[in-house]
TrEMBL record, chain A:
Gene3D superfamilies: 3.40.47.10
Official protein name in the record: Beta-ketoacyl-ACP synthase
NCBIfam families assigned: PRK09185.1
Origin species: Dyella monticola
Keywords: Transferase
Keyword Transferase attributed: yes
Domain Ketosynthase family 3 (KS3): 1-396
UniProtKB/TrEMBL annotation, chain B:
Pfam families to which the protein is assigned, alphabetical: Ketoacyl-synt_2
Region called Disordered, residue ranges: 31-51
Ranges of residues in domain Beta-ketoacyl synthase-like N-terminal: 37-242
Single GO term (MF): acyltransferase activity
Segments of skewed composition (Basic and acidic residues): 31-40
Protein name per the record: Beta-ketoacyl synthase-like N-terminal domain-containing protein
Length: 403, 262
């Protein structure tokens, strides 16, 4: 039996990253191709690299009832939730369906590990210092538990942590819960904040660039790590017939290749993207734009450029936007899903920022600069450590006819 | 909601006290059980990977290997969900110790072992599985929340799904704070619309969690390890009948009933 994705209305969405707070800041930065990367001013020990840091996270205060969850990651989550009327839209959905009929599915790779790191830097007699002696922030579920409390969610709450595909896979889980009538709506998204584990961890793997990352450049030297928070609200199309944008397909697969490098043949990546298109009832020629994973690591970009050249007709436009935002890891899926939705809504292809000399392996599909162009169908790729792949397909409501 | 119906085709269990699901049956029957080797065999891994893998991965893969063998299915086509309440606390403790002292000395291998989906990565690589794999967490409700995720995947996509839920004992300041003091991993191979295996009906409920009485050892383990929340369901499967209510989140639970065998 062929599995299909239930088309869902994307009725609210928001993103906060180094490019700014909310949709308008992102549209503005995309229009100007203005990068949010800056020299590393975050880590407690020096590391010569560039980062995508969100301004003002330190000054955010969580409402008093949520004090046990206070940490950088949850402050960033709260900052993100307060953009684009997202809290209002969630409240409306909760009132419409009932708190138990709304699910919360969030992706993160490191949750609030930065607070655990800080605790180890400030140990007090071998124990966490008093202000960080709070179990709520030293677990992978810290983000989802906080957001569930802040949004008064009564339905299923799950953290998905599959490294850099985390906040793309949440769309697939949400779609299944709605299709199986476990819930009527789902809040999906993800938050990852800067921390030493990922900065020095990726540095140990020799994957961190000393300069701003340059996805698909011939001389790319690795990733620039960023932080971000993003959220979306998914509902049934018959409940929201006027919603202009839809999620049409979610594809998932595993590489079965290596813990920290992608399969150079891209077999797993191709399975995920074909899965997404099959479920959407679309073929490759109907994809107008792909927001690529494009991390600026040697191996990901080589694999992905070959995948595009091998599978898509010349009319499909592709780009990575990580040169602007940095690689936001567990939040990359939702950041790029929102950028894809903005591109669909506004009718433009975002340019592949940061490139000086394009890798000769890149085909004519690549949009090196912004291109005004009406888009009907656009997809987003997310590939993570452990060979974990997810692809999402979005479309205008009028382009979402199933065969 | 409409209830989800799945069959349990395979069951795996490992803790320092229980070598497998049969050992739990013996414990429930009042028999004496024999403690397994302290380092799980994790049969699916190659000798090289077994050496490199941390304890958290060995416990998860051991439970997964048992369940997959019992199911008789080919692992390469079974989707999988690897859940854990706390992830690999030993690796997190190592990372935080090194980051506090000499961050540039971080081991690249221990960093890639630190991701929450390390067990899913090791498993899919070892079994050449290109099916979807996930890594989940639901705090103390990790087992129930991930059982719902796995059952929804099985029913929505009409495919077999393996759920693995495991936690290991913490160490250092993090271990002291969290208080997960023993290892336990379980695995279930779930399939919809098949005729073999034990049939379960799952439905969300706002009722508080409840289960039939369990031996005092099981109750102790449930206090020591979030993944031991699987024990009420595993005991039900061992008895071949019954029902239980498992936490899915702070406010939602899953009512699991054994259906009549057909």
């Amino acid at each position: 039996m062929r599995a299909t994705t239930l088309p869902l209305a994307v009725t609210a969405y928001t993103v906060t990253s180094a490019l700014g707070l909310g949709q308008e800041a992102h549209l503005d930065a995309l229009a100007q191709q203005r990068s949010g990367l800056r020299p590393n001013d975050f880590s407690s020990a020096p590391l010569a690299c560039w980062i995508g840091r969100v301004d003002g996270v330190e000054a955010i205060a969580l409402p008093a009832p949520f004090a046990q969850w206070d940490c950088r990651n949850n402050r960033l989550a709260w900052l993100g939730l307060n953009q684009d009327q997202f809290l209002h839209d969630v409240r409306t959905a909760r009132e419409r369906y009932g708190a138990h009929r709304v699910a919360l599915l969030l992706g993160t790779s490191t949750a609030s590990i930065a607070a655990t790191e800080e605790g180890y830097r400030r140990l007090d007699g071998g124990r966490f210092p008093h202000d960080l002696h709070r179990t709520a922030i030293h677990t992978p579920h810290s983000l989802t538990a906080f957001v569930a409390a802040a949004l008064d969610i009564g339905g299923p709450c799950l953290t998905i942590s599959t490294a850099c595909s985390s906040s793309a896979k949440v769309f697939a889980s949400a779609e299944r819960l709605i299709r199986m009538d476990v819930v009527d709506a789902a809040i999906v998204g993800g938050v990852d904040s800067l921390c030493e584990s990922t900065l020095f961890g990726f540095n140990a793997l020799e994957l961190v660039s000393g300069e701003p990352c340059r996805p698909f450049d011939a001389q790319r030297r690795g990733i620039s790590i960023g932080e971000a928070a993003g959220f979306a609200l998914l509902e049934r199309t018959d409940a929201c017939p006027d919603a202009p944008l839809r999620l049409l397909g979610c594809g998932e697969s595993s590489d079965a290749h290596h813990m920290s490098t992608p399969d150079p043949q891209g077999v797993g990546a191709e399975i995920a993207l074909r899965d997404a298109l099959d479920r959407a009832g679309l073929n490759v020629s109907q994809v107008d734009y792909i927001n690529l994973h494009g991390t600026a690591s040697q191996k990901n970009d080589a694999m992905e450029a070959a995948l595009v050249a091998r599978l898509f007709p010349a009319r499909t436009r592709v780009s990575s936007t990580k040169g602007l935002t940095g690689h936001t890891l567990g939040a990359a899926g939702i950041v790029e899903a929102v950028i894809t939705l903005l591109a669909l809504r506004e009718g433009f292809v975002p340019g592949n920022a940061g490139v000086l000399h394009a890798d000769p392996a890149c085909s004519a599909h690549f949009a090196w600069h912004n291109e005004p162009r009406p888009l009907k169908v656009a997809s987003s790729h997310s590939f993570g450590f452990g060979g974990n792949n997810a692809c999402l397909v979005f479309a205008h409501a009028d382009a979402s006819a199933h065969p | 909601m409409n209830a989800l119906h799945v069959r349990v085709e395979g069951i795996g269990l490992w803790s320092p006290q229980l070598a497998n699901f049969d050992a739990l049956r013996q414990l429930l029957g009042g028999e004496k059980t024999e403690a397994p080797d302290p380092r799980p065999h994790a049969g699916a891994l190659s000798p090289n990977e077994r050496r490199r893998a941390p304890q958290s991965v060995l416990v998860a893969i051991e439970a997964a290997s048992q369940a997959m063998t019992m199911s008789g299915r080919a692992a390469d086509s079974v989707a999988c969900v690897f859940a854990s309440g706390y992830g690999d606390q030993v690796t997190t403790d190592y990372m935080c110790q090194v980051l506090a002292r000499a961050p540039t000395e971080l081991s690249p291998t221990r960093f890639h072992n630190s991701v929450h989906n390390a067990s899913a990565g090791y498993w899919t690589i070892a079994t050449a599985c290109r099916a979807p794999s996930s890594a989940t967490c639901g705090g103390n409700a990790s087992f129930g929340a991930s059982l719902l995720e796995a059952a929804a995947l099985a029913c929505a996509d009409h495919r077999a799904v393996m759920l693995v839920c495991s936690d290991t004992a913490g160490v250092g300041p993090l271990g002291e704070l969290i208080g997960c003091t023993r290892a336990l991993g379980c695995a279930l191979v779930l399939a919809p619309g098949t005729s073999k295996g034990m049939p379960l009906r799952l439905c969300t409920t706002t009722s508080p969690p409840r289960h039939a009485s369990l031996p005092s050892d099981c109750m102790t383990w449930m206090g020591d390890n979030p993944s031991a929340a699987c024990l009420p369901l595993l005991a039900m499967l061992a008895r071949g009948e019954g029902e239980c209510v498992l936490a899915v989140s702070e406010r939602l639970a899953l009512h699991v009933q054994m259906e009549m065998m057909t």
